[in-house]
């Protein structure tokens, strides 16, 4: 390894990003693990993930329509603050213009 000038690269430590110890109100689980929609724009779900680029880690928030499994909104940024999720949801609303009664499920 020394001759080839290779170095060991250790995996990054796991970073906890969920704070379950809070005093905020918890909404009821109306979806109840029924992950299918009967028609478009009836049930949307969201999640956040991250990806490594050559420069840094980026966070991606997506909104998915459970009827078609199509991504209807997304946002990418260098942070995982509320504004990232709000922007993804705003894009989904702008693109799909859902009717009243839409169920939006998030962790």
Automatic annotation (TrEMBL):
Annotated ranges, domain Integrase catalytic: 36-107
Entries under Pfam families matching the protein: rve
InterPro entries the record matches: Integrase_cat-core, RNaseH-like_sf, RNaseH_sf, Transposase_IS3/IS150/IS904
Protein known as: DDE-type integrase/transposase/recombinase
Domain of life, source organism: Bacteria
């Amino acid at each position: 390894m020394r001759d080839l000038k290779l170095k060991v690269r250790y995996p990054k430590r796991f970073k906890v990003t969920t704070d379950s110890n809070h005093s905020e109100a918890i909404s009821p689980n109306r979806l109840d693990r029924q992950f299918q929609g009967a028609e478009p724009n009836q049930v949307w779900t969201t999640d956040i993930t991250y990806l490594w680029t050559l420069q840094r880690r980026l966070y991606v928030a997506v909104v998915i329509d459970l009827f078609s499994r199509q991504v209807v909104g997304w946002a990418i940024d260098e942070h995982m603050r509320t504004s990232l999720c709000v922007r993804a949801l705003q894009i989904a609303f702008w693109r799909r213009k859902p009717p009243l009664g839409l169920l939006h499920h998030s962790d």
